[in-house]
Specification:
mainly beta; 6-stranded mixed beta sheet; 3% helix
């Protein structure tokens, strides 16, 4: 941060300048609004924080349109088929039908129909017989894709699954070369022989392990290094937030590592592998299995979402029973996304930069589900599948970003300040539709009204000059000061942008203000 410089105005009043970084530390929805760091934000909507700036989020593009089932249908599951070799396929479950969503364009005729619902859990599994996509939803019989056709699997099919009714299987996971199926509304999991996805399944009952009742929601695989090499642990979570962790090659030799309590899981798509950890999406936030084992539930700081714990808690309380909660890692974008289903066709995402741990929230993506396919991010919504994290618009529509930085006392907590001018260190590669700057005072926000001149002869090329730890290139840099009025003890920058054509990046904010008496 640059040191404040003092200049004399024509009236003899001493003016000062002050500069603060853009909120690269991200959205803070945990701490008091009066106690945040200068590089945090009160609001960070559709601005993605990086290590050196915050950037207007990327857009979305139509991929498959016209998905219908007696009218436009909600795409509630996307499943990527990933064979060892050959063609990767993207499948979309919508309404009572299944559509091939691999190729962009108008939706083809449905591949499957007469399904009960579109809320499926799925895994890829490889055997000596080929590569398979296994899908279950707790209402229809298990569906299996082998790269060329879909099959319905039950006790009479070839191959068959016996000892359990396949329409009762609602979650699926692969662990040490076996497929494990969670049975609907029970504390039982069923597993196959090594290297198989079908056959006579064996039940592994967990009713005696869990003491708080409920039923199994999901199973995940947690890969750890315990000092003797990498090993996988089996993780089970119930609807009551009880978690059991097992170690061993198979259920017959499993050793119970521990049982711990966390918040109840938000939906069945509540687990995500994350490096050497397993993240669990719960009412208490996004909790790493590694930290949950060593901490009591009251230790909220173990959650990777701790910095937005207030927003997470409010959303879980208000929308926890809605379908659409999901946690997805998007490696190419360096992001972890938590889908928040506010209502039908009304969703937002809480998004974390996986390098810095900084959070923000996205609006404008009305997503029921996300899937990474061929290293790209897609989401399903009403009547279509979209490709996400691409371009500078949402299918031609403007992306609206709004950021309110932390309220800063400028190192003088008791001194009144009158802000006269503000200069955002901000750049763009095309003209945004609208770009406004303002200053909020003493924890009261108002609509920013100072229009930033996005085309100016005084602007400079933002080429290879260093800014803190980042290197910039290809943008037009704003160098202008804008007249504002703000009178208060604590000041915060407020930037709002609407654009369907520009990449916009914000690095810092400069203020010109007059200090008042210390009270």
């Amino acid at each position: 941060m640059r040191k404040p410089a003092r200049v004399k105005s024509q009236r003899g009043q001493v003016s000062r300048t002050y500069s603060s970084k853009a909120p690269v530390r991200g959205w803070n929805a945990r701490d008091s609004i009066a106690g945040m760091r200068p590089d945090e934000a009160v609001q960070l909507t559709n601005w993605f924080p990086t290590s050196s700036d915050v950037q207007l989020r990327e857009g979305s593009a139509a991929h498959v349109t016209g998905i219908a089932d007696s009218g436009a249908a909600q795409v509630e599951t996307l499943a990527s088929y990933r064979p060892v070799s050959g063609t990767h396929k993207l499948w979309a479950f919508a309404g009572t039908k299944l559509f091939d969503a691999t190729s962009a364009g108008a939706a083809p005729a449905a591949t499957l129909s007469s399904l009960t619902n579109a809320r499926w859990q799925h895994v890829n599994f490889t055997t000596s017989g080929g590569n398979f996509l296994i899908c279950v939803n707790g209402a229809d019989k298990l569906r299996l894709y082998d790269g060329s056709s879909w099959a319905t699997i039950d006790g009479a099919s070839t191959p068959s699954i016996t000892n359990v009714t396949t329409s009762d299987l609602i979650h699926v996971n692969v662990f040490k070369e076996r497929v494990f199926y969670v049975e609907k509304a029970k504390l039982d999991v069923w597993y196959t022989a090594v290297g198989e996805f079908a056959g006579a399944l064996t039940k592994f009952p967990l009713g005696a392990v869990f003491k708080r009742g409920g039923y199994l929601m999901a199973m995940g695989t947690w890969t750890v290094d315990g000092g003797n090499g990498i090993d996988d642990l089996a993780v089970f979570i119930t609807s009551q937030g009880e978690v059991a962790v097992y170690q061993g090659t198979g259920p017959s030799s499993w050793v119970l590592v521990g049982i711990f309590n966390i918040g109840a899981p938000l939906g069945r798509r509540c687990m995500q592998k994350y490096g050497g950890d397993l993240l669990i999406l719960t009412q208490d936030g996004v909790v790493p299995a590694s930290k949950a084992l060593a901490a009591d539930r009251t230790s909220s700081a173990v959650a990777v979402s701790d910095r937005i714990s207030g927003a997470m808690g409010d959303a879980a309380e208000a929308y926890g029973s809605n379908f659409g909660w999901e946690i997805t890692q998007y490696p190419k974008g360096g992001a972890l996304l938590v889908n928040v289903p506010i209502g039908v066709n009304t969703q937002q995402q809480y998004v974390m930069n996986t390098t810095t741990g900084a959070w923000c929230n996205f609006t404008g993506w009305t997503a029921n589900t996300f899937e990474v396919h061929n290293d790209e991010l897609y989401f399903g919504m009403l009547g279509e599948v979209r490709k996400a994290w691409t371009g500078t618009s949402d299918v031609g529509g403007a992306i609206v970003g709004e950021a309110i930085g932390a309220f800063d006392y400028f190192s003088s907590r008791n001194g009144l300040k009158q802000c006269r001018m503000i200069r955002p260190v901000i750049g763009w590669d095309a003209s945004p539709n609208e770009l406004f700057i303002g200053v909020d005072t003493d924890f009261v926000t108002r609509e920013p009204s100072g229009a930033i001149a996005v085309v100016s002869s005084t602007s400079a090329a933002w080429d290879s000059a260093s800014w803190d730890s980042g290197t910039w290139g290809g943008l037009i840099l704003n160098t202008l000061w804008y007249t504002v009025f703000g009178l208060g003890y604590a000041l915060a920058p407020h930037i709002k942008v609407s654009s369907n054509s520009a990449n916009v990046r914000w690095a810092a904010t400069d203020y010109l203000y007059e200090p008042g008496a210390v009270l």
